[in-house]
Design goal:
The complex is a heterodimer of chains A (369) and B (373). Chain A has 369 residues and is mainly alpha-helical. Chain A has 17 helices and four strands. The longest helix of chain A is centred in the C-terminal third of the chain and has 27 residues. Chain A starts with a helix and ends with a helix. Chain B is mostly helical and 373 residues long. Chain B has a three-stranded antiparallel sheet with strand order 1-3-2. Classes of the chains: A mainly alpha (369), B mainly alpha (373).
Chain lengths: 369, 373
């Protein structure tokens, strides 16, 4: 495999393993916890490094995951006291833990290559050079193998606990009364999230992890009301972000992680604008249609009201609408055009006459408006 | 020890951090009450593309230009988070997380793009990421003081309005306050406070500077004015303290030192603040429980005594155990009753009511009856 293919593969695997648990983070309103965990794992890594003195030790991942779970636990403890809201608890816990990590590095590991920049920013471009070999056989890039394992774990976790996750996400009280343990599942889930973040930030940096955990699921949330479909759409969005980000980075010769985050933002924007049903465009068109439909019905009722009476000659003229209904000229024209197109009325030299279907529609509107 | 006042770097850093803590602490109070604790985190990340864009557009590396860029992008980001969570089904936290990570990633793209440009003198742009307090100079101090003062003055000027908007938006709207503009103004002020902090403590830690002093101050008071003032003071103290600690200890960056100090304040406040603090809450709960136990055993003893002509008739503690159905506890409670003078120990296992105890038990029963009617 060429380095380029390998990077793309890693990007896709990372994006997928982030987007899957991300669905539940978004639905449970815990999106910002991913940001908190991704920063707070630093002291876990540092302490595990002090214990092992080896930057490639797998123990570092466990240290980091432990720090991630500790973050969640601390936030929960503070929230439970009722003294601070959850967001404030998050906002206090993770900078504190991050500071501990930075201080530990600065004081005791100044000579080691344990760079804060590298932790936060990550560089996917170097991933293919860090390879795992077993007995002289090249197994592939280390991050691909690690993330492949994490992806497998996430898929397994989601498929085994899908029902439980769904229930605790949408109705925690019901879940508790049915005998599920929402708190236990919550901690297992947050452990899965922590491990995912740890593995992913090693490959792509912590900020991209947040983007991949939140943006594709949020986009999917705008596209569907079905949880299973939301998971699938998040996965599809994640793949788009990974590949799109890679090729954008390659074209502009810029940071791959940064591009993937940017593309995931663009992906969300595209969905936000064009999503059927909930997109900005769709809703604007719907509003427009409602507006013109309402104006058309008003016009029909007006005509119906004056039809066949002596003042009809005066009332049923196009230019009269502005005075009588207080409409802007453009708005009046729109209403007339809409009614004409539907075959509800005819215009002869400025005088409007209702058709039979127009009369029926006016009667219908009178009852239903 | 006092010699540090002569040290130019330390004096500059300490003064800058103090002013920063003052402004950030005051605004953090409003952010905390408006449940926007994490907005600071998002804004400080959004500042990165602002800095890069400002550099790309002007080619200038003057802090004022760069920070202005950061402020504009940060403010736009914060406003779009509001808009997104109001007008779509996307929740506030998702909107915040996306804004934070996407804009930061975009900033990274811009930074790497700038680095690739030939003859671009971009060195130092990334110092905003992690903050370099030691690199603060007089000019930065001026920027911090001017913006900090403006922010504090605006807080005073719109005090009544901000207070109302923070506590009762609907009412503020009803009496004709421009709620939306006040929101935007408050967000703008928060952005300004964050932006001036980027150089000192960096992107990641700025959110703690906003929220932690306010969270600590909240525990000590229920009055907004006191809380904001306390938050500002705590912010300033942490700023100076962090600067001093980092100058006294080798290899101790200022930003993390400040954040750890302010986190200690939060911990102490959560534990020991009167009324709200956890320790006092526990003590109060324990005292209340003890008073209930004392009353319960006293009434039991009285019930036994009223079976006899002589109210000081001794009764076995085992009977009391059964009555209180909490064996062991009643024995300790009996000791307590003796200390209070309500009961006497006749021998190892027998207790009797004293006249004071009898009176007390009657009044307890009276109160209970009164409570029931």
């Amino acid at each position: 495999m060429s380095a380029s293919t390998e990077i793309q593969l890693i990007a896709v695997v990372v994006a997928l393993s982030c987007a899957l648990p991300g669905v539940f983070l978004v639905l449970r309103r815990m999106a910002m916890l991913s940001d908190a965990i991704s920063h707070a794992i630093l002291p876990g890594i540092v302490i595990a490094f002090f214990l092992t003195r080896d930057l490639s030790s797998p123990l570092l991942i466990f240290g980091a995951a432990g720090a991630g779970v500790l973050t969640v636990a601390l936030v929960e403890v503070i929230r439970r006291t009722g003294l601070l809201k959850e967001d404030a608890a998050i906002g206090i816990v993770f900078p504190a833990l991050f500071s501990v990590g930075v201080l530990l590095i600065a004081r005791y590991a100044g000579d080691v290559h344990l760079d804060v920049d590298a932790v936060l920013l990550g560089e996917l471009a170097f991933a293919p050079f860090d390879r795992l070999t077993l007995g002289g056989v090249d197994l592939g890039p280390r991050s691909l193998l690690v993330m492949g394992g994490i992806l497998a774990m996430n898929v397994l976790f989601l498929s085994v606990f899908f029902k439980e996750l769904k229930l605790t996400t949408f109705d925690a009280a019901l879940a508790a009364s049915l005998g599920f343990a929402p708190a236990v599942l919550q901690y297992v889930f947050m452990t899965v999230v922590s491990v995912t973040i740890v593995g992913a930030f090693d490959a792509v940096g912590s900020i991209l992890v947040v983007a991949l955990m939140v943006a594709p699921p949020s986009a999917a949330y705008l596209l569907t009301d079905d949880l299973k479909r939301m998971v699938l759409l998040s996965g599809a969005g994640a793949v788009i972000c990974a590949l799109g980000g890679y090729w954008m980075a390659r074209g502009l010769d810029v940071s791959i992680a940064g591009s993937m985050a940017t593309v995931s933002g663009l992906w969300f924007l595209v969905v936000l604008v064009f999503a059927p049903g909930r997109g900005i465009l769709f809703r604007a068109r719907q509003r427009q249609r409602q507006r013109s439909g309402f104006a058309r019905d008003m016009l029909l009722i007006h005509l119906y009201h004056h039809e066949g009476l002596p003042e009809a000659e005066r009332e049923c003229r196009v230019d009269h609408l502005q005075d009588h209904l207080g409409w802007q000229p453009g708005f009046a024209e729109m209403a007339v055009r809409s009614a004409r197109k539907a075959g509800y009325l005819r215009v002869d030299g400025g005088l409007m006459t209702l058709s039979e279907s127009g009369r029926a529609q006016a009667r219908h509107a009178l009852v239903h408006i | 020890m006092m010699g540090f006042l002569d040290d130019y770097t330390l004096r500059t850093v300490a003064l800058g951090a103090a002013l920063l803590g003052l402004a950030a602490g005051a605004l953090g109070g409003f952010a905390l009450l408006r449940r926007q604790s994490l907005l600071g985190d998002a804004i400080s990340h959004a500042a990165l593309p602002g800095i890069a864009l400002a550099f790309l557009l002007t080619g200038s590396k003057s802090p004022v230009v760069l920070l202005a860029g950061a402020a504009v992008v940060g403010w736009l980001g914060a406003v779009s988070v509001d808009k997104l969570s109001e007008s779509s089904r996307i929740k506030y936290d998702s909107a915040l997380g996306m804004m934070l990570s996407v804009l930061f990633g975009f900033g990274l793209v811009l930074l790497t793009w700038i680095q690739r440009q030939p003859d671009a003198n971009q060195a130092g742009l990334d110092s905003y990421l992690f903050g370099q307090a030691a690199a603060l100079v007089d000019r930065d101090l001026w920027v911090i003081s001017i913006i900090g003062t403006i922010v504090l003055l605006l807080t005073l000027l719109f005090w009544k309005e901000f207070k109302l908007v923070s506590f009762d938006r609907e009412f503020a709207h009803t009496i004709g306050m421009p709620v939306r503009y006040l929101d935007r103004l408050l967000t703008g002020m928060l952005v300004a406070a964050i932006v001036i902090g980027l150089q000192t403590v960096g992107v990641v830690l700025m959110s703690a500077m906003i929220i932690a002093p306010a969270a600590a101050a909240r525990q000590w008071t229920d009055r907004l004015g006191v809380m904001i003032m306390l938050a500002a003071v705590l912010g300033a103290i942490s700023g100076v303290g962090g600067a001093v600690v980092s100058s006294l200890q080798p290899n101790t960056p200022t930003g993390p030192a400040i954040v750890i100090l302010v986190s200690v304040f939060v911990t102490v406040s959560l534990l020991f603040a009167p009324h709200r603090g956890l320790v006092f809450r526990e003590i109060r709960a324990w005292k209340a429980g003890r008073a209930l136990r004392v009353e319960a055993v006293l009434v039991d003893l009285y019930a036994l005594a009223s079976q006899h002509a002589d109210s000081s008739h001794p009764h076995s503690d085992r009977v009391l155990d059964v009555m209180a159905s909490m064996s062991g506890a009643s024995r300790r409670t009996l000791q307590l009753l003796r200390t209070l003078g309500f009961a006497r120990q006749i021998d190892a296992r027998h207790w009797a009511l004293t006249p004071e105890g009898e009176q007390r038990a009657r009044s307890v029963l009276q109160e209970r009856k009164g409570g029931r009617v």
